Amino acid sequence: MEAGIEHLSRATISDVDLLLVVVEPYYKSIYTAEKVVEMARELGIDEIVAVANKVRNDEDRVAITKATTRWDVPIIAEVPFDESLREAEQNQEAPMDAAADSAAVQAIRKLAAKLLAPAA
Known about the structure:
three-stranded parallel β-sheet; Rossmann fold; alpha/beta
């Protein structure tokens, strides 16, 4: 689905197995993610996990971790801030192709593999 809360506010997301909330270390992102978690729980979505995105340093990591701990939502992956993703976007290139060796793309590939792996 597209990013945003429309799917939650319209309750079109109620049949999902897992909600992945991407959280960046900025106030607006943390605030929005908290609202997403609240709405998801109101809709009865039981499995909610977070991805820490655009992490530059321990301060960013702590900000996201404090919030997700308060919401009782585990962080299952961390994607570092990576300038090559911005460059790919500006050049209208897919980051997965243009920046395939970047730390962020590698973290995203690892997350995808984890999400697609059969349940043990």
